[in-house]
From TrEMBL:
Its EC number is 3.4.11.2. It is an enzyme of class 3 (hydrolase). Residues 121-190 form the Aminopeptidase N-like N-terminal domain. This is Aminopeptidase N. It comes from Kineosporia babensis. PANTHER family: PROTEASE M1 ZINC METALLOPROTEASE, PUROMYCIN-SENSITIVE AMINOPEPTIDASE-RELATED. It holds the Pfam family Peptidase_M1. Belongs to the peptidase M1 family. GO terms for biological process: peptide catabolic process; proteolysis.
Amino acid sequence: MGELVDVKSLTQTEAAERAALLSVQRYDIAVDLTDLPTGPHVRTTSTITFTCRTPGAHTFVDAAATVLRATLNGRELGPADEARLTLEDLAADNTLVVECEQADTRAGAGVHKAVDPADGEVYLWMSFEPDQARHVWACFDQPDLKAPHTFTVKAPSGWTVTSNTGTAETEASGTSTVWKFAATPPLSPYNTVVNAGPFHQVRRTIEGYDLGLYSRRSLAAVLDRDAEKLFTVTAQGLRFFGEQFGMPFPQPRYDQVFVPEFGGAMENFGCVTWSDSHLRRSTPSAGEDELQARILLHEMAHMWFGNIVTMSWWDDLWLNESFAEFAANWAAAEATVHTDVWSRHLTDGKVEAYLADQGPISHPIRQPIHDVAQAMSIFDAITYPKGASALRQLQVYVGEKAFRAGMTSYFARFAWRNTTLQDLIDELAAASGKDLDVWKEGWLETAGTDRFSLDLTGEQPVLVGSGPAGPPRPQVLAVGAYTVTGDALERTDLQLVDVQSERTPVNLPQGADFYLVNDDDLTFASTRPVASAATAGKLPTTIARAVAATSMWDALLTGEAGAQQTLDGLVAVLRVETAPSIVETYLQMAAAAAELWTPAAQRERSAEQLAEVCRQLADQPQLRRPALRTLARFTTDVEELIGDDIDLRWRALVRLSELGVDTAGPVADLLAQDPDPDAKNRAAAVRAAAPSAAAKAETWQAVVEHTLPLGAVYPVMSAFWRPGQEDLLAGYGEQYLTLLPTLHQGGMIPGLYFTAALFPVFGIDEAFVARAAEVKDGLAPVVATTLASRADEVARMLRARAQGETVGGGA
């Protein structure tokens, strides 16, 4: 890794003081990218026009790039200290001009230069959440100082520049072109963006919106393949959100830019940036299509939740992320072909959230945030899937009509302003006629997971619930009654239960063959009893099977069920599930159970069991791709099944490499055939899996020195940590501990990725995990939180491997 430079983090107190003092009228930002084809530098001039409510007062502006020159009202300013420029003797009306230069565009924060290995072309992207705009230009980098931004960008000729307002006036001059963008609406600095490079572009006009897609040129064929799907979901989402929120997206242009070496996606107003890893190089599976749609709708929902209406401070991050996650699922289920999306939310997002909420990083969905560094640590499964689940429960609790009315009034009242939790609660309470203060306290301000079970000893079932510290939260959930009919279970009754206390009678008859608590998955709660494998496979609907499967996984996490028992249940639902995207999540869960949770002595049996069901699923065309992907992970006898599929051949090579087969020749042949410009990352995963000390050392160095792009870190490290290679992996735990103080280099996303992916899962013991969990000194909050979460999960894996089948069974 390069040299790490820390900068001071803005505190909530400082932000409140600055917001009380200042009002920002506008930003005019000039950006010079002309050094990038051969050099690393991005140069900016930020002109900030602002007023001061107390003339003569002082404050500071954030400036983490190298400040070349700065003037306040024509007066020269001194150098920046700890990424801040002091502003003395403010006038009522002020003009601040700051010239900056950022040279760390490979591993730094906020701005990134990527070189396409396919053709040597250079691409530049910027991404600023939560406070990384200051690494590129001077600004008041906090969410409640919103202002219009006007960008003027000088870029090499032949490049395309994208920004928030879309269409730009251009003026060519020699070897460069100047792009002048119209002013944005009032935005927080973190909602702004500039991307640039020799992009391939596809555009459509749909329902009055000018929609654009961009990628690097070497992925033009892939973008062209996916364009119609992306345009369709984009148009569906804009229509749905405009209707549900009573406010159409307020500008005619909406762009989405797929860039290399990016992590995830970012909701910049009118110009969303994606990692181009989401442009699948092989034909996407149904699950990949659904994931792409969910991400697209999540980022789009942020146009309203985050951009148009913005939280005042990071303690209300959930107003952005929980709502965007909820709204993405809502839109996908109601407005697109991805109608099973709530089951997918349950089997991947909520599974992760149940683990997080019952472990050491559990925190309220909304919690006090001291500074921005702490805010980086809560972009997690509690803020995202748990928060989304709480909002779905709120929609059920108040009713969808009232929920929609509350959203409409919220956006009408607070557009282009900042809000707090109470603002939203007040609008929803007014629309529904319900006092939501108890709901708010229980769901948003209290950590932990409720648990429900059924007492069947009386004349009718009684739902028994407990909360984190007493009674369960107020909520509405469903209990289904099922009767055996032939070889299946039929739902004969369903009752909604309004929970207000520990024991709630359920209006269902005694004597059903099976009762499913939280049927239809309307709430966020751990439920018992756990369905048996035989029962889970007989449930009649995708969502019912998903509730049962999630309960099985939760029992594995808590040590109430063993890995084999859990795998049996997952195999049972795999044999009957018909929704392709849900099959993919079950295969991923089953593979994890077989590989990471199963005792070493039972792994071979578990692998054979999973391989058998994969071969059966591969006979169904819509399930063939995910089934063969999983099969290639566990067996070598797949050559006749995968044919010329390059993606599957890479996966098969990882397995052969793991078993000690010399793959150098096949890797070279496949690199020559693969049109993917990032195929070398697939080769790196093959090398990472090899049972060779040299291969492990090379892989480790490539990852920790950022030789591999961020998107390759997880797949390469998954190949690195292989069962049966414990002796080779034994020394990497200590190396990991020494890296921890530096893993936040480059910002929040690298901190999350590297801390999680590099954490050892083999070659360590419970003593190491306990020691790692205690490391605190010198760690950025995002690293410390991710470390605690990963350590907790791996500790549970180790206990499951040690216990084997000594734990109890399910009902």
